[in-house]
Amino acid sequence: MTSGTMPDPTTVSPPVDEAIKKVSIIISKGSLEGIYPGLIMANGARMEGIEANVFFTFFGMDAIHKEKSDHVKVATVGNPGLHLMTWLGGVPGMSALVTRQMSKTMEKLDIPPIPEFIEMIADSGGKLYACKASVDMFGLTMDDFISQVEDVITVGEFYEMAAGGHIVFT
C-alpha cells in the first residue's frame, strides 16, 4: 500500500474480539439532562447483552436518593442547550415549567421516569453503585438510597469493576 491510500475494506478483517462486553457509566450531574443520558446508555447496554455498571457521584446521586429521585428537574440557569437567556432561566417556576414540558415529551416517546428507568436497569442485571467519597461528603448512608443500589464503593473499587471494559462519563 502506498502512502495516502486506504486499504480495501473488503480485504481487511476486524479483530475477532471487537465487541463491547462491559461498560461502566459515571453519572455526576443531578439534573434531568445530566441523569438520563447515562440511564439510556446503561439500559441500551443491557438490551444488547452488555454488562453495565452505573456509578453515581456528587449530585448524580439524586437519581438514586429515596427522597430526590422523583423530583429531579431540568437545569435552566446557564444551560446553553435550552437557548434561554441566563436571567430567564432564573425566573421562579421556569425550571418546573421546562421540566414538565420535557417530561410530557419523554412520556410520549415512552421514556420512563427516573425511578422506573433505574428499576428496569437493575431488573435487567445492571448494577448501581454510589460513590463513597460523595456519600461521605454529603453525610449519607446506604439507608438514603433506593433498594436497587448494590453498594457504596470507592473509586478504586469502581476501577477494578470497570477493568476490561469501557468507562463512559456523562
Which homologous superfamily in CATH is the superfamily of the domain at 22-71 and 112-169? DsrEFH-like
- How many helices does DSSP assign? 6
DSSP strand content: 15-25%
Q: What is the CATH topology descriptor of the domain at 22-71 and 112-169? A: Hypothetical Protein Ychn, Chain: A
The CATH class assignment of the domain at 22-71 and 112-169 is Alpha Beta
Major sheet: size, sense and barrel closure? 5 strands, parallel
Distance between the termini: 40 Å
Mean pLDDT: 90
Strand order of the largest sheet: 4-3-2-1-5
CATH architecture of the domain at 22-71 and 112-169: 3-Layer(aba) Sandwich
What do you see in this structure?
By secondary structure, the chain is of the alpha/beta class. It has a domain at 22-71 and 112-169: 3-Layer(aba) Sandwich (Hypothetical Protein Ychn, Chain: A). It is built from 6 helices and 5 strands. It has helices spanning 32-47, 86-89, 94-108, 114-123, 132-137, 155-162; strands spanning 22-27, 51-56, 127-131, 149-153, 166-169. Strand 1 (22-27), helix 1 (32-47) and strand 2 form a beta-alpha-beta unit. Helix 1 (32-47) runs parallel beside helix 4 (114-123). The longest helix is centred in the first third of the chain and has 16 residues, at 32-47. It is globular. The relative contact order is 0.21.
